[in-house]
Amino acid sequence: MKNDRELMRVQDLALAMSLLTRIPVRVGDTSRNARAAWTYPIVGLMPAGLAALGGMLAGWLGWGPAISALISLSILVVTTGAMHEDGLSDTVDGLWGGWTKERRLEIMKDSRIGAYGVIALVLSLAARWAALTALFEAGAQFAVPALLASALLSRAAMPVLMALLPHARSTGLSHDVGRVPDNAAAMAVLIAVVLGIFLLGGLILIAGLCAALITWGLGYLAHKRIGGQTGDILGATQQMVEIAVLLCLLP
Length: 251
Known about the structure:
The protein has twelve helices and no strands. By secondary structure, it is mainly alpha-helical.
């Protein structure tokens, strides 16, 4: 149908929000899940915006940059249901814990977390907290744009991989969403870059390059080790791009 082929629809925002956050929204037809990927960067602004507000509130209360960073990080985790963190731990467990494609996918599907996954979670959370602490210490004028830009670029990375890489398995969240059309992925990148320019100015070039390199690296690794992407790969990509962008924006 014609409506199903439209690139952008307002209802796409609700679809993406129901998928990427724990904010309760009503959705009806989910056949546009893949086409709704163009909204991922916009949806990413919601948890990042709440995180920025929480961090600024802590600063106004005089709690210091470390607590501001901790509150911001906690809001990011809670509002997304830790789905991206879960993807990171499963990805690291699987890609480094198995010797064959089948075994790696089996490990990634296992709900239990292994040593690699625990280490990845600890290091990633520590990296995000340290980066946010340094940013809040420099001031909200550094922390807020960095939080929002990292949300934009990291959410734009996911539809790129969903468009470029095949599904590594015939089940799972990413497979259920479907293959993202190239124009939807391109629109997600365009939105992230345009809004990023307003937030960062010329620094968007550095942040965008960091995001592109991480996305390419994880995409290449996923293609080599499991033959494509899964929801866990996408979650890991979001986390690693977010970390890379925050670090490259440190004052």
